[in-house]
Amino acid sequence: MNKQTLEHMKQLRLYGMYRAFDSSLSPQSINYTNDELIAYLLQSEWDDRQNRKIERLTKAARFRYSAIMEAIDFDASRQLDKNQIQRFASCEFIKQKQNILITGSTGAGKSYMASAIGHQACSLGYKVMYYNTNKLFTMLKTSKADGSYLKQINKLEKQDLLIIDDFGLKALDAINRHSFMEIIEDRHGEHSIIIASQLPVEAWHEIIGEQTIADAILDRLVHNAHRIDIKGESMRKKLKNKD
């Protein structure tokens, strides 16, 4: 009977329940009451499905770093507001459809922080996508050539959180400026975005170019946005000196 039950669980893809029930048959297992066993099996299945969902979301996000909020360095030299950063762990900013703009010099830890917040969002069940700016715009230009542009734009629009890293390394041309405007317009008031850049926000206007479009983009981005300016020496240099 137990073997048949286990087989049925497998066929129904109740993998968490399968493993829990299999372990409950061990002589060393706890003697559950009927109610306790049902609760144990259901909780095991729930946990298994949640873990698999988080794995799928994290894999789909394609993060640059495997980062966690707990590993963010709050050394005084970085001048970070620890309370502000830790509040992001609840991902309330996503519920409120707010943005986060992270700036700082090369190696300051902008990408790691953005990825850590993104990983946390995935753990809470949010759909996240991470992109390097140049790769994002290259992908969108290619999609225009092969006719999949609208599909790619719609995919970006559906994400609860979009992370754009290394923004501002070079000025936007007309095509990229139009695509960027479309992305920001689609997300404004609907979904959150995190942008990480070496340049201060005040310099983004020049990078975007074309005053009218730059004004429209920055108005939508900066309004209702949390801003983090990381100070201090390069984290990569700091870690290298420790070795």
TrEMBL record:
SUPFAM superfamilies: P-loop containing nucleoside triphosphate hydrolases. The keyword Phosphoprotein does not apply. InterPro entries: AAA+_ATPase, DNAC/IstB-like, IstB, IstB_ATP-bd, P-loop_NTPase. Keywords: ATP-binding, Nucleotide-binding. Pfam families: IstB_IS21. It comes from the Bacteria. Residues 96-229 form the AAA+ ATPase domain. The keyword Cytoplasm does not apply. NCBIfam families: IS21_help_AAA. Belongs to the IS21/IS1162 putative ATP-binding protein family. This is IS21-like element helper ATPase IstB. The gene is istB.
